[in-house]
Structures are given as structure tokens and as C-alpha cells.
Give the backbone structure.
Amino acid sequence: MATSIVTDSFLSSKSLRLHPRAAPSTPGLRSPRFFVASAVRSAATTVEIQSPNERFKPYRINLNEKTHSMPPQKVEIFKSLEDWAEDNILVYLKPVEKCWQPQDFLPDATTEGFYEQAREIKERAKEIPDDYFVVLVGDMITEEALPNYQTFLNVLDGVKDETGSSPTSWANWIRGWTAEENRHGDLLNKYLYLSGRVDMRQIEKSIQYLIGSGMGAGMENNPYLGFMYTSFQERATFVTHGSTARLAKPYGDHNLTQICGTIASDEKRHEVAYTKIVEKLFEIDPDGTVQAFAYMMKKKIVMPAWQLYDGRDDKIFDHYATVAQRIGAYTARDYGDILEFLLGRWKVEGLTGLSSEGRKSQEYVCELLPRMRNLEERIISKAKQAPKIPFSWIFDREA
Ligand SMILES: [Fe+2]
Ligand SMILES: [Fe+2]
């Protein structure tokens, strides 16, 4: 899991709003201590805690957050899938000895050649524009908030790691997945440090804020919702890391292309695993699963780094998302593509034998795609016209 960005305009689009957001705020200025944001098509009431000193706590909380929404009898479904997950899901984790490690892409500080290799990284990075670095930093911070995502998985009923070292297949997956993901933030962090282009202290603060805030993705401890979410997110991170790999190419930075491309291929493997879990749920419980899918899309997918903060800019997540949209690292079109991919992957349109609720859900998700497609161009051109703003991550240069 990692970055997934939906643009500011996408967020503010009434019909597709992903999460009730705060009123506009001026960077550096704080609104009154509590701000109740209005929710669009959602019963949720989001409260913002505005004191900067409180930012080691979640600062946007959904007061109506449901918990344990999956009926208790459905926990049994996940228990009964233990052996299936062992044979079909754990195979998507690579043995540690066969995994790449960040050191494979970085200068070796134990050798004399270290200084020369580090200098080369810095030289190559000079060619790359600030816009690109803002996106790479946002991606890296999102990866570095991994504790939030392991927690996210460990509150899902029926699959959570009950002891912290539980031998169940689900728990083995959660720990193994986390361990693989940990290399992503680690590698990007070290690369960015060596690039000499970014304000590492501001970035490190942002990571601390984000982990302190938690994630609060609103999954209601419900693994149906949780695995829909991870399916979406892994696909989104595959797309965005793939884009940063591609965008580094014209600047001749093959090392950076390789770094981002290697991370993207991990994300792809994780996407295959999570979408397979949901495929199995569609097979066992098509009605419940299609309703969960529609519920997720109506409820809006909250991005993993939506609570991003750097100590200065309240809307830094939106600003980062706009830059990503502008340079084509992750756009509204990608968002629609992911939905289209998932609809096809799970053959949602062809589901039969559904209850009337199930059919309504099926209709809803299938009709959502053309509605999104209609908005894409407008959203992308709006992001392209958005004014550049200063980012603390690049020493207040504008991007
Ligand atoms: Fe991932
Ligand atoms: Fe990742």
C-alpha cells in the first residue's frame, strides 16, 4: 500500500467527493479549534482538531464512525478460508532471501567508491524538476506511514493478528506484507536524502505527523471493506510508482527509474493477492461482496495519506495531489481506470442470482464509471491551471 492521490478538484466534486473535507484554510493560519465539516452524501460528521500541538493525535475524526459492521457469523467465512489463504495468498509473498533490499540500489558506505556514487546521484538529481520531487516526497512519506497500514489490517475482524505473532494464514500475510512494504519507504527515503534536493527535516516531521494522526480510513473493522480498500490502493500505488519510474527516464536517471519500477512491481504482486481475496469473497458471498463494493464507493475512498501535514500547510495533501495530477503521476483518469479494472477483474457486471439489494449495488458501481469518466478532463485541466505554491519539502520553492 502507499500513495494514492485523488486531486483537490476530485475531492471537491460533489458527486464523487471522497471524504468530507475541511473548509478552505490559509497556510499558516489556523481556524477555530473545532471545525465541523459538512458531509456530502454521507452521514459522517468530521471534526477537525485545529491546534498544531495536537497533531500527534488524529486531527480529523469521523464522529459517526461505525465499528464492527460485519455480522459476527461472517467471521466464520474468514476462519474457513485459512487453508485457502495459505495455498493461494501467502504464495504472493516472496521469500526474504529472494527479495530485493534497499541496499541493492544505493551506494555502499563501506566502500571507497561510496563518495563517487553518492556524487553521481546528486548530479543526476539536479536535472529533475521540483514538481517531480514533490510527488516523490509525497509518495515516500505515504510509504513511511506503514505503521498506520499494519494497524489498519490488524483491526479487521476475522483476519487480524491476535497476538502480534499469530500463526494464522491471515496474520502471516499481514506481517509478511508489512515486512515487504517496509523496504519501499526505506529505499525512497535514502534516495531522497542522497539526492540533496529536499528538506529532509521537513519531510521527517511530516512522517512523524502522519503516523501520529493514524489513518482512519473508515473500514468499520470489516474485512470486506478492508480488502476492497487494499485492492484499490495497491493498484493505485502500482500506477503511481510506475509513473514516477517513467517520468524519471527523460532526465536520464536510470537508477531512479529502476528504484520506482522495482517498488511498482511489488505493488503489482500485492494487488494480485488482494484482488484474489475479494474474488474469493465474490465467489462465496456475491451478494454481501457487491454490497460492500457499492458501500465503499459511496462512502468514498479515503486516501492513506489524507491526514498529511508538514507543520505549516493544512492542505498539503491536496497540494501534493494537484502536482501529481499536473505531471501525470496519478490523475483522475487513473482513478477511473482502477475502478474499471476492478469491475472487470471481479466480473461485477455479469453477477447473477443477486438479491434486490445486491442488484441495486451492482447497478450503482457499474453506473459510477461513466459518471467518473465525464469528469476526468475537467479535473485534469483544472489541476493543470492551478497556481504553483511553495512546498516546505523543497525549501519553499514552488511546485
Ligand atoms: Fe503496497
Ligand atoms: Fe508500498
User: Anything to note?
Assistant: Residues 254-284 form the longest helix (31 residues). The chain is about 55% helix and 5% strand. The pocket of fe (ii) ion (ligand 2) is lined by residues 1-2, 143, 181, 184, 237, 267 (CB under 6 Å). Strands lie at 34-37, 46-49, 60-62, 390-391, 397-398.
